[in-house]
Amino acid sequence: MKAYAVINFLATMNTQLLQQASMLDVNEQMELVEAIWNGIVSRDAAPSLTDAQITELDRRIADHVANPNDVIGWDEVKAAALAKVKQ
């Protein structure tokens, strides 16, 4: 298969996958995103962080060290995000 044919095939496949994912409800889309991310992480394939991301993470860690009780659990964050999307 020639390179341009492979690229065209992959573009079509990606478009179809995105169309299928867009037909899922919000909860299913979030589950899909979590499953994809977990698969990436399990292969140690996460992308490198940018300098800006490293700076932001350092800022957040420093904030957490200074305010260890000022936290929100994932379940609460997820519920709030889902509620906001459903508005």
Q: Into which percentage range does the β-strand content fall?
A: under 5%
Average pLDDT confidence is 87
Task: State the helical fraction.
Answer: over 70%
Query: Total number of helical segments?
Result: 4
Low-confidence stretches: none
Looking at the chains present, what oligomeric state does this protein adopt? single chain
Structural class by helix and strand composition? mainly alpha
End-to-end span in angstroms? 47 Å
H and E string: HHHH
The count of DSSP E runs of length 2 or more, i.e. the number of strands, is: 0
Radius of gyration: 18 Å
Tally of structural domains: 2
Shape: flat
What's the story with the biggest beta sheet? none
Short characterization:
The protein has 87 residues and is mainly α. Helix content is 76%, strand content 0%. The model has no long low-confidence stretch (mean pLDDT 87).
Overall description:
- The protein has 87 residues and is mainly α.
- The chain has four helices and no strands.
- The protein folds into two domains: 1-47; 48-87, no CATH class.
- Helix content is 76%, strand content 0%.
- The protein is flat, with a radius of gyration of 18 Å.
- The termini are far apart.
